[in-house]
Amino acid sequence: MTGSFGATEEPTIDLSSDKSWDSASMRAVYDQVDWSATALGAKEKWPSLLRLLVDLCLDSEFPVQISWGPHLLVLYNDAYIPLLGAEKHPWALGRPASEVGPPPWPASEEHLREVMQTGRAYHSEDQPLIIDRHGYPEEGHFTFSLIAVRDADGTIVGLFNTITETTQHILYERRLQVLRRLGSMSITADDSLPSTCRAAVEVIGKNRKSVPFAAVFLRDLQGQGPRRTAGYGFDESAAAGCELVEFLPSTGPVLDTMEHGGTELVSGLRKQYPGVFAPGPLGSLTPDQAFVLPVVMLGDRKPIGVLILGVNPYWRPDEAYTAFTAMAARQLGVMITDAVSYQNERKRQQALEELDRARTEFFQNVTHELRAPLTMLLTPLQDILDEPGVVLPAAARDTVETSVRAGDRLQRVVDALLDISRAASVALIPHREDIDLVSVTVDVVEGFRPATEGRLNLRVEMPNDPLRAYVDRIMWTTIVSNLVSNALKFTPDGEVAVILSGDESHVVLTIADTGVGIPHDEQAEIFERFRRGRASDQHPGSGIGLALVADMASAHAGTVEVDSKPGAGSRFVVRLPRYNGLQAGVALADSAAASDGEDAGNRPRLLIIEDEPDLRSYLTRLFAKDGYAVEAVGDAENAHAWLEKNADNPPDMVISDVLLPRQSGLDLLALIRQDERMARLPVVVLTALADVESAVQAFAAGADDFVAKPFNSAELLARVRAHFQMNQLRDLAIGEAQTTVGQLRHALQSNRTTGTAVGMVMTRYELDAQQAFQVLARISQQSNRKLSEIAEELVRTGELPGVPSWPISSSGS
Question: How crowded is residue 253: how many other Cβ atoms within 10 Å of its Cβ?
């Protein structure tokens, strides 16, 4: 390399500052520079390698920068000028990097020196830069590769920096992410339109680089003007003086858009509203422009609201930016439409639930009110019959006995109605205990034997050994009693068989008779309340016995089935889980491993958090004996780690001490309630602080129950068992309620996804809505896939599925 590296004079050249340079004009610039006044020396004395690199640099359409020699003398092409800064061109040509500073884009002088010394290339992608190439500060993103230049003997003599602009890609992905998030939002989590708007604005606000401020106004359905329901990026105390973000605008673009529709771009915000809008994350500039867009519900022409989207102060609105804001407003309109539909459906469901609750309450009140007069009616009559000194005429005694039998029948109906109402209010909760079903069943059946003598055969088949199971004793006797009574009622002669059997997992009760049977078309309805078959017309009854059997079997997570033929008898089969998750005689150590390799998969899983080892071991043994698969840990951190690991298959219950080392049990409870996968997980809190304030704190944090130490073990077992069973029933009820609106929600989600996909195609390929939809339709036809599947894949991946180079023209064909 020739030339000296001492002090230099500025290159002199007569260039117009607003000229658009090309490679030919840049060669003219290089020809006119007095290179002898620079450290590079006269151009004709440059090394051949440097002249070759300069030729390559000037021919490139991409920004290229050369750093030559130990002082990193700067050379570049026309495309590099905006990155350098127009005010430094052509002065920077041939000057050391340290003088051109700040360091030449996009590598720092430190990186330049490192590559010069080591020869290792330096590569960086999507580097941000605020540049001035169109007369205003502009956001740009660039990828560059800085490589060492070696002469013939391998000496590093310079650097070659090739730069590619990625601005449009970064901006597209950033905006696309907003539209994706809006399209995937669930409207079922919000209970009002303002909360839906706040959730949407929160999503938009996560990308303040593209949207430095935003606000949403909704039309007041009572006829008043629009009100701001959500917003960010502005000074609330100064908002009253700004028509774009004031709470209740009385004039200006918000009212105009609400009344007439149409999109408006408002400019001059910096001058007109100084101090209102905050700078965005890109720099100190505050927004100067904003889009005012109508928000329209599907199927409605009049806007229901207005969306204000601030414009990035380091970018000017172009077609892509405008399309992005239009899609955001459209997506908000879809969300509001979905929210209104869902909320209307939910209100209808709540009204039905309230009606059902009122009906249940009515039955409960009526049955309770009937008990007192029935007692006053039956007790004196029975006293008359039992009084030794009272001798009644035969006709009178027959009348009294008939009245007692009628009263007893009415008493059974009242009791059954009360059980039915308890089942309807999800209060039919089995109080399970370990009982021998053989002895209990025999006792019930033998009570009917006097009524069968001389009429039919009552056959009982029981296991030789006790058959133990965890069931509610009263409910089991009710099931057996109702089925046997029903069989005897409809079997005038022949046989009624009561058969009990069981295996490791279930018990099976079979009641078979040779009676009149049930027509096939009535069998599907006999377990419905107050439903009585045609054969029942000859026999008194309320039509709730079999319904109660079904409810009680269901309360045990069991089933009841019927198989019957008219004239050939009926066969009822009740199948209940033998333990229903509550196995007896299972003891677990602190490791909570099932003993003897027994499979714990069918038992409810319980997580215990207690820092005192002896109490932790006791609780583990106590609940393991009651049939739980127990995991026990000593602190909240290990408990949270275990819950995170098992978040997709959480335990059925959690018992946690409050006073734990480091994090408290209430801190852990807060984390559980914030995780939607475990939000409904029952949590029972144990604490030595038995005061009211501690209880209030526990329930406020989301605890399902509060148990003070020292506690009664039987009470604790009962409470945990009750919460476990209530949670099962609650999940069942929630599942049934969600099924009611499931198809609606699926349709709404599909609609939002398709709308988002159309917007993505519009934005990327600059098509209108109809053309974008035609593109998706073509891909659907060609790939033989549903349009909704194509839309879902596009929203999820950001790419059109199918052929990667799918041809798209501006005509949409």
Answer: 18
Residue among 224, 220, 219, 227 at smallest CA distance from 249: 227
Helix, strand, or coil (residue 138) = strand
CA distance 544 to 341: 38
> pLDDT per residue over 129-168, tens digit each?
888 877 888 898 988 898 999 998 999 999 999 888 899 9
CA 683 from centroid of its chain's CA atoms = 21
Mean pLDDT, the chain, rounded, equals 80
Do strands 156-165 and 64-68 pair parallel, antiparallel, or not at all (unpaired)? antiparallel
Q: What is the number of helices (H) and of strands (E) in the chain?
A: 22, 22
d(CA 125, CA 146): 12
Task: Render the burial of 220-240: b for 16+ CB within 10 Å, e for the rest.
Answer: eeeeeebebbbbbbbeeeebe
- The contacts of residue 64 (CB under 8 Å, 6+ apart) are 56, 57, 76, 77, 79, 80, 160, 161, 162, 163
Q: What distance in Å separates the CA atoms of residue 346 and residue 188, rounded to the nearest whole number?
A: 9
Q: Which residue has the tokens 């049977």?
A: 517
Rounded-to-integer distance, Cα 10 and Cα 175, Å: 44
Gap between the Cα atoms of 31 and 54, Å rounded: 12
Given the DSSP bridges, would you call strands 494-502 and 506-513 parallel, antiparallel or unpaired? antiparallel
Determine which helix (DSSP H) or strand (DSSP E) holds 307, and give its type and residue range. strand 305-310
Q: What is the DSSP string of 523-582?
A: HTTTTSTT---GGGGGS---S-HHHHHHHHHHHTT-EEEEEEETTTEEEEEEEEESSTT-
Rounded to 10 degrees, what is the CA torsion of 800, 803, 805, 807?
Answer: -80
What is the band of 588 on the pLDDT scale with cuts at 50, 70, 90?
very low
Neighbour order of strands in the sheet with 214-218? 227-232, 214-218, 305-310, 289-295, 264-267
Collect all residues with Cβ–Cβ distance below 8 Å to 177 and sequence separation of at least 6.
207
DSSP state of 268: -
**pTM: predicted TM-score of the whole model, two decimal places:** 0.49
More confident residue, 558 or 408: 558
Q: Which of 382, 373, 430 has its CA nearest to residue 403?
A: 382
Average pLDDT of 459-483?
90
CA-angle at 68, arms to 67 and 73, nearest 5°:
70
- Give the strand pairing for 456-461 and 494-502: parallel
Over 50: is that where the pLDDT of 596 sits?
Answer: no
CA dihedral 179, 181, 184, 186 (to 10 degrees): -120
For residue 106, what are its two tokens? 């996009």
